[in-house]
Write a structure and sequence with these properties.
two-stranded antiparallel ribbon, single chain, mainly alpha, 2 strands, about 0% strand
Amino acid sequence: MLKSWKSIQPYALATPQTLVLLLFLVLPILMIFVVSFWQFDGIQMIPSFTLDNYKSIFTSDVTLRTYLNTFKYVFLVWFFCLAIAFPVAYFLAFFIEDQKWQIILFLVCTVPFWTSNIIRMISWVPVLGREGLVNSTLLRLGLINQPLEWLLFSDFAIVLGMVHLYNFFMIAPIFNSLMRIDRNLITAARDMGASGFQILKEIILPLAAPGIAIGSIFVVTLVMGRIRHGCE
């Protein structure tokens, strides 16, 4: 009896999570796929097979531009989030030896989340606006003759705002992965004569890959949802 329970124990442990994934992930995706072939009369979906929905997507310039802009913003935000998050997480994990200060500095990264997304977005207006901090400083220094218009209400402002919103979702998983790296591996590599770049390339980056992957999933999902709502 005990032997048979041990043989089915892994399946029993995996069953609840499998059911949740099937019910709340796989089933909704299948329903979306099925409904995508239904007819739409402007008010309701009619269960009748048609390819008109896909034809309208791939032949509409507006739809294609929307998708291209979405992928452009997703890539830019993901790239800058990763470029900022990895050095921050690396600094916290390897340069701060006191665990108390690691926790304090990590919590500092969460400070922007103490306010709403709207407040964080509005906070950029006094900085990037026509009479904002950046333009005023550049004018006083004589680097420009008139305020820069592209700082606000532009692609630059959109990417900057979303990097500000979602950067922490990249920092947290990368920091978690870096903290799990066995320091003895790095010490052994140094003793064997490996350079700092070789340690980063051969040890730290491969072991930090799961954190980078999880952070990328968070950022890409959130940005695509944000752009989609913006388009709506």
